[in-house]
Please model this.
Amino acid sequence: MTHTNGAVSGLRVGIDVGGTFTDLMALDAATGTLHRVKVSSTPRAPEEGVLNALRAFRETAGEPIGLVAHSSTIATNALLGQVHLELPRVAFVTTEGFRDVVEIGRQNRAEVYNLFVKRPAPLALREDRLVVRERIDADGSVLVELDPESVAAAVETLRERGITTIAVGLLNAYIEDAHERMVVDAIRAAIPEAEVSASSEIDRQYREYERFSTTIVNAALVPIVRTYLERLARGVRESGIEAPLFVMQSNGGMAAIDAAAERPATLIESGPASGVIGAAYLGRAMGIRNVLSFDMGGTTAKAGTIADGEPEIASEFEAAGATHSGRSIKGSGYPVRFPFVDLAEVSAGGGTIAWLDAAGALRVGPVSAGADPGPACYGKGDRPTVTDANVVLGRLNQKALLGGAFPIDAARSHAAVASVASVVGGDVERAAAGIVALVDAEMAKVLRIVSIERGYDPREFTLMAFGGGGPLHACAVASDLAMRTIIVPRHPGLFSAYGLLAADVRATFVRSIVARADEAAFANAERLFTALAEEGRTALAAQGVGEGETAFVRELDLRYAGQSFELTLPAAPTLAQNVAAFHAKHEQRYGYAAHHDPVEIVTVRVVAVGTTRKPPLVPAELAAPESSAAAKIGARNAYDGTQFVTTDVYDRDKLVPGAAFDGPAIVEQYDSATYVAPGWRAHVDRFTNLVLERAS
Amino acid sequence: MIATLDPITAEIIGSALVYASEEMGIAVRNASYSPNIKERLDHSCALFDRGGRLIAQAEHIPVHLGSLPWGLGRIIETIAAAGEAMRPGDMWVANDPYISGTHLNDVTVVRPIFHAGTLIGYAANKAHHTDVGGSVPGSMPPDARELFQEGLIVPPMRLMRNDEVVAETVVLFRANSRTPESRSGDLRAQIAGNTIGERRVLELVERYGVQTYEAATDKALHDSEVRMRAALRTFPDGEVRVEDVLEDASGEPSIHLRLLLTKRGDEVTLDYAGTNAQLPLPLNGVYGVTLSAVYYALRAVTDATIPMNDGVFRPVHVEVPLGTILNPRRPAAVSGGNVETSQRNADLVLAALAALAPDRVPAQSGGSMHNVMLGGVDGDGNPWAFYETNGCGQGGRPNADGIDAIQAHMTNTLNTPIEAIERTFPLRVTRYEFAEGTAGDGRFRGGSGLVRAMQLRSGQATIALLAERHTVRPRGSVGGAAGGVGRHHLVTDGVSRELPAKTTLPFTPGETLVVQTAGGGGYGNPDDRDDAARERDARDGIRLAPFA
Model:
């Protein structure tokens, strides 16, 4: 079975399920043609949106489909408590004396000054947190043998209560899993229909709360995600598509649907990850190794780092958690220790609302008008949003959006912005400029977080702007960080679907070591690398990846002894090289290295990669720069940062490779609009990207 | 100045300064060694204008909220009084509580920021160093009678001169600590934090010019003041007298804190006349810590989204007689003032605010940080030290139950994972769960405290415990019942004996220390509690505190 190989023979299709729209993109390997479809999402049964998109696509494109990849928000939505996606009753079996570990968490509260702060509701209620008598010591030896009677009692309770979604997590099981396996076997024997997740299988790393949490989140999601994926697979087969189905994971790699159903917690950040993968792929194809991705949608803006061609991956996040100024708030969600594409996110989107505080100062966000009622110009709401400000400033079309398909009411935008204009003496246009300036400053923060705070100089990076709003604000945020080049992909509003065309199959395998970095520990790490790679090989084969398409990335997490944060590094052949690389990375990230301090190896990780062949980008002939004149569809008064000036408007669909023009200018297209600020020059490259470069 | 200032530019500068203070905090955390900073975020970072007024402070730990700006003022005064001045390229360090504003563990580092040769402000941060000497590991001896037993006292000294680290100063910290490597690492981290803060301020000054920058910071202070006044106006006017207690070394609730809170219009005055005289115990809290608890309570009940700066507390007046436990004279011992007295003071201020607006303030939380300090040598003769605070039951809220086993009020530190403790220290954790019978009953019940038990595996060690609410129960509110008290036990050869709330004793292999923390009081009449909520508690095995 070599599905991924077979994929190249047909079209590769990517489908991104968003809150409002389900986007499909497909790339014809032979011709380089990009197909795109946008249909409404169907939140109650998201697979219908996917199937609708596939149906619509096949009406226009006749070629056979070789591979279908999709990103899904179903896991996130279930954790956020969306109706129709109620989580099942979950039981958690743990070591006697420790049943509240998963509810206590790390003891901190998510908001220090909020007396009404909430702790995330436990996914397994205290009543359903059962204990067994046993204890493994920190060195893996057995302190207290597993008491069979306590196991039998727990199993009996599960059966009486009819609970079939079960997580098992025992102390120190990351180092010795014998007791966990015995408990799991006992449950499976007595309750054959049970779905059991064991902590030593799901997340074999130390720190009990995070391991137990990951295991419980995974267990809780299994029934919903499996049902969804099975319905989706059935629908796809019934529509006559035989191609293999993959799902995007938080780590930016795909999983075959059977594997994804076993590890649904790997899918939580599925959607945002694919945009970054698209940015990395497009960047590599253009020969650009350092990219900051900037994805601005209706409610949030997200930024990610691609350094030397590789997206930055973090090993832990909090699912269904909150953020503050782009940083995740510890204790606001459920820790999940599956790798994810490390994004900083801020409440700043087209629907973000502007308001006046008690001191009369203008503020923007974090509240969003969302898709309903949406910006005032949509005709329902009357509060001013970022989109309304852009309409007032003339940067967005004042008659209709979506390439003319969605009429808007610019007068409503004007009235809405007027409601906060007292801050600038009633000047509506200045107020609109203020709203845009404030949201730009907010978004620049997340780009700082993913560059400066990670030890990177943003001036050495290219900004990849996408999402419906990214291209509209890109020049402002790039200028704030002194970045000189911006790439706006051909279809920025469907870029998450595009990223699905570029993803590989990935599966991650980890073990904790937690030992002084000496030769013995390194030898142990090397043994584990071999064992984990073997697990990876088996897992990839089960997902249809052929032997010749596999690669294994070996990583070590290291720290100075006494620290409690680790840095992840690609493993080098010798211990000395690894330690030297750690010092260097510590220096880059934190500004110093402590060469005389002892180093610890904490975690050994193998990322198994099933390389899929991506449809190549086909370079086009370049036309003359002046060919842009043919794409000019008009001009309107738009704000250039200091005043309103007559600004040329171009039709993106008519701009051909080679076409060039200077800002200020506006480029309109179906799924987005680009604002080219004064001092920037735009041209269309060989791959039909719009490239903006700062002149001075 | 303000008249010509573009309000949008002002907003952008104000928000950039808040972000810069947060970025300082990340830099300190990333580079630090002490688990207290790295894992527990026991540090704070702030920026000040040329007059030493706070212009932005990252929200890390409430106990530094008022003490950091208060401490900066004292440090500047002390340096001036000595005929010295902060010069370009300097960084100054201090931990003298009577100057820098908390306890000896909290080391403050200050960078004066110069632009074109003129002082334009300060970047400063304060971080909890795990050990600064004194009679026990962790530098918070429960039996200290004066400051000198608590560790190294450093008045303002240069940590950098001409942008070079002053080696003698670092050596002084190292020589006085049980963990010298961490001292160098933490000081380096604090330097890194201030460097970031300075760089961000200078970037703003270069982009917008000094005049605009300073007009914007003035406006930020003004706006915060206006918003705070608006928030205070939403409370009814009134005069409220409240009182609460701390427990002395023998457990008697003999230490009284008294407050007269007067709220009129958009101002509030807090008068602590009648509060206990300072004591030969580590429960004295310097004035900066007293301010922190006041600011915490007011921020929590008003509007925590108001940007934190000097303007916020202009409408707040705090009067504390000198020589009392809330404003002691040197050299009273102060290590527990931060962790215990500040909690009680927060309870006190919240109680006064509850009298004005009972629907906006929860019942009392567990009211102690339940400090546990363990240290000694392991079986192989290697020294070790471990410090943690423990969460408690949160008080029942006007709209919801209190949260079980969580850090309340003046702290928000993270616990250390059991599997990390067992790998690093000769300790084994034998129990960690909600404490039964500690949640106060009410329409919305209080949270349960927690039980954490640890056994010594090898070597020899010392236990130092510093806790409160072992005698007096956390109060309920609006008819709710009190929460249950905390307890300490030591189990030796299967025999359990109770230990005092504040004590130091030897720890022998095989013995188990059991720490139980207090629960939260209930809110509202228990008769009004929803049947479904009672049913849920019964099924979950949550037992309430005995009704008293």
